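For the sake of transparency, this paper describes our internal protein records without simplification. An entry from our holdings is shown next, in its original layout:
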Amino acid sequence: MGHPEMMDRNGFWKDTRSRGLLMVTLRGKFKGEDNLRWHLVPIVDVTSSGIQVRKWMRRLLFIRCHVDGVEEGPLFVNEAGKQARLSDYNSDFQMFITQARARERHPKVFSSKVEVEDYNLRRSLRRGSTTQAHNNGVLASTIELNNRWRKKEAAKGAELGLAMRQVYTQALSALDTTLRYSRSL
């Protein structure tokens, strides 16, 4: 599973600002592969529902760089300073769902028919964003392109790891299509 990295945040951050998007950099060992790999996920600065992705990423990076004093490496770390796992945040995620339900501003977002414990960061966010994109009319081919890294994960040693600049160039070549996904959220 890939994890968000702070690699070259200034280069890609500046390059993508004028395009109205940012590149989320993932690095990790994917299933069936022996080497670390890079994967870039282009995301619009602001989604159609008003989520200000760049603003929140900027705040997160500010905390990691200026408060924690970290310039490179994993974006999310545990108390020991090691790369965090998604499961490290599940209890917080479930607490936020409970709070969102209590406020009842958006009762359809987190159905009361589903137990809070059934929500999980590993699958709930992907399923939710895929469903939202589909409901907003995003073509199935675009959704599949956005979720391509899942297929690569399962492809057992498909392609060799590329240099970061090559991965970035590949991500740019499909930019218009992949941005339809995050724009629809």
